[in-house]
Amino acid sequence: MHTVETDVLIVGSGPAGSSAALALSTYGVPNIVVTRYASLADTPRAHITNQRTMEVLRDLGVEDEVVAKATPQQLMGNTVFCTSLAGEELGRLRSWGNEPLVQAEHELASPSRMCDMPQHLMEPILADAAVARGTSLRFETEYLSHVQDADGVTTTVKDRLRGDIYEIRAKYLIGADGARSRVAENARLPTVGQMGVAGSINILFEADLSKYTAYRPSTLYWVLAPGATVGGIGAGLVRCVRPWNEWMIVWGYDLAAGAPDLTEEYAVSVVRRLIGDDDIPVTITSSSAWTVNHLYAENYQDGRVLCAGDAVHRHPPSNGLGSNTSIQDAYNLAWKLKLVLDGTAGPSLLNTYTAERAPIGKQVVERANKSIGETAPVFEALDGLSPQTPEQLWANIAGRKDTTEAAEKQREQLREAIASKAYEFNAHGVEMNQRYASDAIVSDGTEDPGFDRDPELHHQPSTRPGAKLPHAWITRGREQLSTLDAAGRGRFALFTGIGGDDWTCAATTATETLGVELATVVIGPGQEYEDPYGDWARLRDIADSGVLLVRPDHHIAFRHAHATASGDAEVLLTAALRQILGHG
Length: 584
Known about the structure:
Elements lengths: L2 E9 L3 H12 L4 E4 L13 E2 L1 H9 L3 H7 L1 E2 L5 E5 L6 E6 L5 H10 L5 E2 L2 H14 L3 E3 L2 E8 L4 E7 L5 E11 L6 H6 L3 E16 L3 H4 L6 E7 L6 E10 L3 E8 L10 H12 L7 E15 L3 E2 L2 E3 L5 E2 L7 H20 L9 H23 L2 H6 L8 H10 L5 H15 L2 H4 L2 H5 L40 E4 L2 E4 H4 L5 E6 L3 H14 L3 E6 L11 H5 L7 E4 L5 E5 L7 H13 L4
Parallel strand pairs: 1-2, 1-11, 2-8, 5-13, 11-18, 22-23
Antiparallel strand pairs: 3-7, 4-7, 5-6, 9-10, 10-11, 12-15, 12-16, 13-14, 14-15, 16-19, 17-18, 20-21, 22-24, 24-25
Helix pairs in contact: 1-5, 1-9, 9-10, 17-19
């Protein structure tokens, strides 16, 4: 049997697999991607791309291409609740950072803007850039099994075109093969939760709906309609894929009864029901059934096998966290693999992958499923949860216009119910507040200060070890750049200021003794980088002479608030790096 060799084999070409390949190739790590499919994603699937993911794509050099092809943030944000697109509107929620106060928080939090980038447009950007930088991508190649030993992983794959079976020998295997991951199954990763908690149908179609949507631009239009969910009364979702001609409807079905026959006639009937205008020409492009899942892995690693993306966290699309978390998994893992493979770090560095990402995966699964339940108050405001006829629901909706005290209370209840959906559509903190605790983070002895405001709704920057480096606009000559731009690119970065000379000298020594690439970023008047707005000084939580050591993934690994006694900087920094790199 012929054997192919590489450093890292990635099974799966979705957001997790393609971004892992892109990061590894950007860092110079040989890798192969195999996928059993004949192409990349051919349907929109995931689409919301949040600020943290855009920061990752910025660091990997593809942000501009994504922005050029995505629907911009300002066209995403009027989440509408209605009886049909052509029917009565019940209310709107300014979403995805488009509420004025939230928009300001977005501007302050990141150099990048969130956008709507459907998966079938995102994957080619990631995969093409990965291949251009060295990835070998193999379609129609099916993962069958793997075995590992002390030196690597031997994976058996099948070429689905030729029918022959061969082996790929890699030092590490990444399982990014989705919600039915065979890699994760064979690795016997422990999981919590269950698959298939509800049934859904995606219907992709083309129609010019601009007269019903362009004046209230949004990614999501929620339609309260009879028959939308099991039990008869609920909501169907009309999702904009490309303004305002490409669309996807999400519709529920009874798991116990099984998915309906997805004929074109059935699909058109659902589309017509949610649009509410039978004169609009509609072209169905595809229909598919899927299940809502509530499952997460407690461990992402089995020796030299590491899993990412939907292989280890499976949840509904609520909050738009799926592909974002998958890409961020890969970003966390790639730099660690690079340092282990080139001998800079010990294998124990990879143990921090589960410690850092599994809590995020659990949080995302719980949040997305909780968001489904938080839609119930919208129905309750219209007395739409009790079994009843469609006529009664329409009467309840009409009743909110009455002049009675009960109607006034109903209107208030409906407004509050829609506003509470901010936890799904404006969960800025869930997207940006990720803070790690692992052996790759060196505690500075300070207590976790917690959050001043709701940590799910609001981002709170911090320089405490484990937090992401805060964004601030700084300058280098005539160039304006983010603090995040001064870090990343596969290397550590040391941030200090005037009086931090001992730290910069210590960085030079650490680079020489440990072989780690470490950029120095000195910020202050007359330095290479300056802080003209004073934003960095307000965010850094250290003195000019203090230091922050930032990992390749932008997370702060070590902090010291002030200058040290002569010689101590070298000792402290070297010890911190040795811990992070797994050298004891």
